[in-house]
UniProtKB/TrEMBL annotation:
Name the record gives this protein: Pectinesterase
Subcellular location: Secreted, Cell wall
Extent of the signal sequence: 1-18
Superkingdom per UniProt: Eukaryota
Record's keyword terms, sorted: Aspartyl esterase, Cell wall, Hydrolase, Secreted, Signal
Amino acid sequence: MTQIVIFIIILLIPIVTSDDTTPIPPNKAQLGSWFQENVLHHGARKDGLDPALVAAEEGGAKIVKVRKDGGGDFKTVAAAVGSIPAGNTRRVVVWIGGGKYTEKIKIDRNKPFVTFYGAPNDVPTLVFDGTAAEYGTVDSATLIVESDYFSAANLIIANSAPRPDGKRKGAQATSLRISGDKAAFYNTKIYGFQDTVCDDKGRHFFKDCYIEGTVDFIFGSGKSLYLNTELHVIPGDPVALITAQARKSNSEDTGYAFVHCDVTGTGRNAFLGRAWMPYAKVVYAYTTMSDVVDPKGWSDNFKPENDKNVFFGEYNCKGPGSSLEGRVGFFKKLSDADATPFLNLGFIEGSKWLLPPPTL
């Protein structure tokens, strides 16, 4: 009898699972509840998460504090990162006090499970003035993340190098390079001009963020979902390019999905993406586009042979820049079935690793 009672009790215990296929709602007002229901704390869905991630979170986070005034464990972010041991297996939260930190920061591949956290009411700024001429494009970034399971919340990341003028060689300057797998950015503002974000490789998630630039200001071979993020085109260039996705073959599982985002700016001179590589894949869904978007929408990088290979899609967008009249022939007006793979966390296999933003 006791065994039967125990069995019944077990059956009644709710089992929480995360379903990658739950669609992102078309109504932006429902995003908050959708996210809360589908991205739960690790303790509520241990069985579905990567075992290494569960182990890193189970031990409790180690908090390292950075304050410019010396009131923390370190005065610089780079020093705090340097204190994390190679082969780290535990979540380490680098709490960064308010102010401007002028330094170049790199998290090596052998330091996974790192979080950068700034207080929401006193957001810190990480800034440096590296350029491609000095470091090479991808290594010019103010913040370089090569490790897996990185997360960030409440940050400003900027590159303060002068705006490229078309004359200075190597003037492009990256603010963020994310080369690790399974990384998430929440409430992060990223400022730059050309090549602002190197979304280099791996699966990434950006939510409630702001990214600005002029040319190729999101570029690389990442597979990333951008949700409720503003993409701001800085005026002044004859042509602006938001994305330069670097998918090289049809077998590569990469691409960018922008869902419930806002494309802002003015001038009718911005392309949603260019075929930097011949199989570039970029989709905009439920996105509001200002008149900054060139009516043609997309560029094949002056290589017509790319037209048959690229995957440039739009789905249920709105705003003056979303008009499909005048779009290039190689863009795709996505059907419901076409759009479905881009409209859920399964696009980045989020159920295996994505966690809510940290709170301290």
